[in-house]
Amino acid sequence: MHLSHALTHRGTVRAINEDAYLELPHLGIWVVADGMGGHAAGDVASQLVIDGIQQAVEHLQPETITLDILKQSLIASNRFLQQMSEHEFDGKVAGSTVVVLWLYQDNYHLLWVGDSRIYLLRDQQMKQVTKDHSQVNDMIDEGLLLPEEAESHPLANVITRAVGVDSQLDIDYRTDNMKEGDVFLLCSDGLNKELNDVEIERTIKSGNIIDSGMALLHASLVRNARDNVTCILVKNTPKKINIIDDSDKTIPIFG
Fold first, then answer.
1. What's the pTM?
2. In which order are the strands placed within the sheet that holds 183-187?
């Protein structure tokens, strides 16, 4: 069983919200997309990516969903956004980052393009389980930049991959075992621009996923949220246990 809670806000600076998200807990799928390209392009791009995934899986049963179905949805969105850029936006790029969390049986699967992130809180320790496709992250990998210098670097907003930008879409993928009690955070970079990983971890550990999500959004807004902010918290909870009481009534117990 999976519990989830999603929030999005345009922030205090941007005129519109170019983020979009998707919650399909009955299918074990959650998505965050962060559009780029400005008004009429960025918000269209992120919503198109979200709609593409939803249309690809909404008629399926959980056991029939595959990694390839999710990948092909993103590839189709990439192709369509390139056509839109050419024919509707006078060549202006309409692109979007995307992170996808797919939970099935005892495994989690991640797909991502761009610098939106997925974190995993396990046994009270949080780690980022996606890797940013960004200029500063490449510089960190090459030893040209320290991690703590990344957010303040002039190239901090430059991403190296996005849906809709290149003819060939390069999608990163990761899969691993899932544990009871795992908490996943999907977020656009508007969150981690305002809060560092230590602050994010402390906030997630401080309460349930609803309270933690609201606290994350509130903290980013207090710091003026220069970008749109979207976050989804997903918790892998214990399976339902049925207990028979003295009155012979079945009581569902949830973790």
1. 0.90
2. 2-9, 229-236, 183-187, 117-122, 125-128
